[in-house]
Give the backbone structure.
Amino acid sequence: MSSHIYDMVLLRLGSEITIKGKNRARFEKVLADHVRRALRPFPKAVVKQTYGRLYVELNGNAYEEIADALRDVFGLVSFSPVKRAEVDLESIQQTALAVFQANKQRKDTFKVTVKRGWKQFPHNSIEMNHLVASHVLRATPELKVDIRNPQVDLRVDIQQSGAYIYCDVEKGAGGFPYGANGKGLLLLSGGIDSPVAGWLGMRKGLQLEAVHFHSYPFTSEQAKEKVVTLAKRLLHFTNGKLKLHLVPFTDIQTSFAQSDQERLIITLMRRAMLRITEKIAARESAHAIVTGDSLGQVASQTLGSMNVIGRATSLPILRPLVMMDKVDIIQLSERIGTYETSILPFEDCCTLFVPKSPATNPNLEIVEATEAAIANLDAMIEEAVKNTVTVVLRSEEASKPAPESDEDRWF
Amino acid sequence: MLYFDHCASTPPHEDVIQTIAEVMRVHYANPSSIHQAGADAGNLIERARGLIAKLFRTKPEEWVFTSGGTESNNLALMGAARQYAGRGKHLITTMIEHASVYETFRQLEREGFDVTYLPVDEQGRVSVQALEAALTDETILVSVMHVNNEVGSVQPIADIGRLLAGRPKTLFHVDAVQSVGKLPVDIAGWGIDLLSGSAHKVRGPKGVGILYVKSGLKPAPILHGGEQERSMRPGTSNTPAIVASAKAFRIAMEEAEARSSQWKALRSRLIGRLNGMPELVLNGSAESDSAAPHIVHFSYPGMKPEVIVHALEQRGFVVSTKSACSSKDDKPSRVILAMSGDARRSAGGIRISFGSEHTEQHIDQLAAAIRHTVAELKPMERRN
């Protein structure tokens, strides 16, 4: 049900941000900007910051619509729909009851917590606890008060400007505001895992750029488009801009396929990808590589493989999924909205030329010797970096209106 | 000729016709093929899906394109009932559903499901209390239409959604074929799991239906074949018609609010004129809140409706009896019978449904034609 009873939404910043001392103000500002961006489709909603509190004035928007948009904002730990009452006892009692009744969860027990910020209000907070609770109890026969472990905590904050009342507390996405912790490059394959890894990285405050390797004609145009679709979905969680680096990988991959080291192909490929990504990272001032590796999931993700592959770069490799189970990863990808795209059956680089029994414990010396035997490998890597096409994806609001094409006319 | 049968089908929008022709000429490749031409066609379909999703504030992957409203209803009901039969065998619907819902439930009864058909009041509205009373632990599906296709009564979908909100096992299907583009439809806010729509009711092409399937649900397919439409609906996708349908839905839904006040004014004008004719009985509500803005339905007890339709047609006005999907059988209207319990009244229903092209002048002309027709037919009235 869409409810218009609320006046504002109170936003809570993460404890992780709270402990950041003097950085707090900066994080708060960044977070407020992200909330504003998320609420751009709702021009009437206004984001305000006062006394370390961040809140949204709904101005007639339905709370549910705003809540949907807020759930995707990183750095927001929780939020609550608030109704404002006039600063008099009767108005506070009535509003408190309305807010309590609007709460949909099961509630056999509750308590009231009144904070009297404006000390001139005639009743102190202990009196107010009783006055509000008894009013709610009169209207709700089965309800009991439980001070220690209530199902619902009905909160009343009395200020001079108004009394602010709420009892719902919704969990936000948590983490850090997007970009608060520096920049990394995400290896985006098109599978289920890498978009989830990217999302978790962004949730922890990483600004991301995506790197995708394609081997046309062994991989199809659809595979590339699938990655663009995934990147566009991730774009939703950014500050409105996401770079996607498309790396031509055909020459390198086919040279590995002809190297007589069939079992090592995956290892060699992954190392080449890291070396290329490292060079792009230097160009883009990124300081980490984010991958969707999950320990033991496939041959290239055994500990032995990770060791040999990881040595190809000196940048930190962040593997948000490394200790997660597949079912949990799938669940996250459904929540993020990438699952349906990820399972489209287009072959990508990582599934191409996969040997029947890939090495699960590759030998670093043999791997290095094989690479050394490919005379022009370094040149091919330079070439791949040089021929990388970078697409800058922008969210709809940020992009300039393109001239109308045939296609636009049809919709 | 003035066309007053928008509930049966609508005149396609000029831009819709042009879009179909252009897309049909260029994007003839099979949208499921892996070559670029196929991918281009496939991308158009996905863009159409994205537009539909946006119009209803839902996700693109929650929409399935079908061959029409009938298929959308069949897929939703058969698919959900068969898929989730293990959770219970009881289904609830109303006595006034469109044939594509009603007959599907009859089929499900033959397959061993237990179906409750809820009655409606004089205004053609189902009671939320009656629905609540009918719910059992076995109830896996409730299907209630948003706007009735014969009399235009509006069902309390939001209230029903609220009632079902605490029952995750009970799916909620809404046949919104007659309401999309006419009234606001709030899929998420009303807790809807499955929702059917049809393009040709909103000035789009025939042959395209849309079905909303909430994330996480997977109705069993009723057709068998390829993996199109996420394996829920096989068959080569109809690229030009789907693209043009998305456009038709967009135009209709963007204009709905403005059109709605135009239609409400026309509706009350026509009802005012009909009230001056004692031979006629209005079916459904005269109030604009509980009735669709674009439908007026009346009975002429004692006169066969076909006679009125043909007489009006001679004067240049196209109206209809019952719904087109059941207008050729001779039985009294199941819908009017459920509302009034009056067999004479239910034998003689006339439906007038208008669209964006109609003006007050058209309504006055229609009312005059009805008055003349009634005067002409009165001597032939059957008195029993």
Notes: The first strand of chain B starts at residue 2 and ends at 3.
